[in-house]
Structure formats: C-alpha cells, structure tokens
UniProtKB/TrEMBL annotation:
Keywords: ATP-binding, Hydrolase, Nucleotide-binding, Transport. Its EC number is 3.6.3.-. It is an enzyme of class 3 (hydrolase). The keyword Cytoplasm does not apply. InterPro entries: AAA+_ATPase (IPR003593), ABC_transporter-like_ATP-bd (IPR003439), ABC_transporter-like_CS (IPR017871), MacB-like_ATP-bd (IPR017911), P-loop_NTPase (IPR027417). This is Putative ABC transporter ATP-binding protein YknY. Belongs to the ABC transporter superfamily.
C-alpha cells in the first residue's frame, strides 16, 4: 500500500483557539475518504491544512513523500496546481468565460502538456461528466449540477493524484447529488484518491472510509470498503455508526 498523505501531530490554532488537536492520519494512494463531524468541529480547517490551502500551526504533512508543510508558498501553490484538484460547495468559476475555457484555464497555467492536449482532455472530461453539449455556455447559463460537473472537470484537468472537496454536493438536490457522486466514484475507480468533507450520510456512504472529527480530534473511523453500488447493509452500518456518534 502506497501512502499518499501522512499527517503527524497536526495542530492548528486561530489566535488563542485550538481548532485542530494533534491529528494523525494516513491516506493511501487511491483511497476515497470522507471527513464527517458537527459544524465547527474543524473539518474544513483540516481539509485546508492537509491540502496546503492553509498552514498548520505545528506538525508535519507529507504528501507523496514531499514535506508539504515545509514548502515555501510558491512551491506549495505549484504542488497544488499540478498534483491536486479542488471542488467546493460553490465552485468559483469565472463568470465571463465559457464552461470549456474555465476548465482548460488551470491546464494552460500549469503548462504540463501542450495546449492542444489540455483542450482534448477537457473535451474528454466534459463527455465523461455529460456537459459537452454546454461547453460554450457561460456559467450563468447552466444548472447547479452542470456547474459542479464543470468544477470536477476543471479539478481533473492536470490529472491530479488527489481530489479534495469541501461539501461538493452541499448546494445540490438529492438526485443531482447522486449523479455527482457516481462521477466521483468513477474517477476514484480509475485510481484518483478522493478526500471529501461532508455532512451528508449519502455522500459518506459512497466512500470507502470515514473519519469522524469532534472538537478538533479524530474521534472514530469507519471502514466500509470500496463502493460497488447501493447496498442496504452498508447503509445500515453507516447509519448505526453515525447514531453512535450522535450525528
Ligand atoms: N479563519 C478563521 N479565523 C478564526 N477562526 C476560524 C477561522 N476558520 C475557522 N475558524 C473556527 O474554527 C472552528 C472550526 O471551523 P471549520 O470551518 O473547520 O468547521 P467545520 O467543521 O468545517 O464546520 P461546518 O460544518 O460548519 O463547515 C470554528 O470554531 C471556526 O469558527
Ligand atoms: Mg466546513
């Protein structure tokens, strides 16, 4: 098992407030992990620290054998651009650009492959997520679900080894959530690691492993195994566990 991300003794303070307390976590390459917990428990803070969007107060974060926490800002940004993808509740796509141009932009910026290859990859991802027919629309001419699919395509454009998402389906209705999760499961099955933060048991049910954060600490962990489709026993196990957590 290849370790993609290793977090050791991670602490994060905001002023006097201790938000993350001695977090230790390992994520294997190809894993699909969901971070759950009450509002204010530190889920987003943890995601931002482990993805290099924010700086930890202390502790080490090793990403693909790279000392992420020790990197200067410019190098950290480069690792994020070239090796990580991000999807949020409201993904901030640029208003005056088409869906296609929003997707290819980080690819042009990273300059990892020729521009023609970036455009080809974008077309492929738009087909995969079912938005190729709206590629030329601007972002206010598409639905919320289509926008989130575009955000996934953009997050994938540099073929990252890991996708991070903070409530990526938080603004979607339940059937659109299912469709977006189908796409994320397919991406994970192709080998991309996924780390999500979610309040939604339906989302967590799609991941192989769930950690539960309480007051800035990892309180418990549930291993469900790879998602292979709807499974009542699996859902029941997750529901029981969440009840035990008083969630
Ligand atoms: N930039 C900041 N400055 C000061 N305090 C912060 C900052 N960001 C987060 N916090 C505090 O840290 C704690 C954890 O916040 P965080 O956003 O990680 O929670 P969360 O688990 O993601 O909650 P939610 O489910 O509501 O999104 C909260 O008490 C919050 O007020
Ligand atoms: Mg949050």
């Amino acid at each position: 098992m290849q370790i993609l991300l290793q977090v050791q003794n991670l602490n994060k303070n905001f002023g006097e407030m201790k938000i993350l307390k001695d977090i230790n976590l390992e994520v294997a390459a190809g894993e699909f992990l969901t971070i759950m917990g009450q509002s204010g428990s530190g889920k987003s803070t943890l995601l931002y620290c482990i993805s290099g969007m924010d700086r930890a107060t202390s502790g080490t974060i090793s990403y693909d054998n790279l000392d992420l926490a020790g990197l200067p800002d410019a190098e950290m940004s480069e690792v994020r651009l070239k090796h990580m993808g991000f999807i949020f509740q409201h993904s901030y796509l640029l208003k005056n650009l088409s869906i296609r141009d929003n997707i290819i932009l980080p690819g042009f910026k990273a300059e990892m492959v020729p521009r023609e290859a970036v455009v080809e990859n974008a077309e492929e991802y738009m087909k995969m997520t079912g938005i190729d027919h709206i590629a030329s629309h601007t972002i206010n001419e598409v639905s919320g679900g289509q926008l989130q699919r575009a955000a996934i395509c953009r997050a994938l454009i540099n073929q990252p080894s890991v996708l991070f998402g903070d409530e990526p389906t938080g603004a979607l209705n339940s059937s659109t959530t299912e469709e977006v999760m189908d796409i994320l499961n397919a991406i994970n099955n192709q080998g991309t690691s996924i780390i999500l933060v979610s309040h939604d048991a339906k989302v967590a049910n799609r991941s192989a492993r769930i950690i539960y954060l309480s007051d800035g600490k990892i309180k418990d962990e549930l291993i469900l195994g790879a998602y292979t489709g709807p499974d009542a026993a699996r859902e029941e196990k997750l529901t029981d566990w969440l009840n035990e957590m008083r969630f």
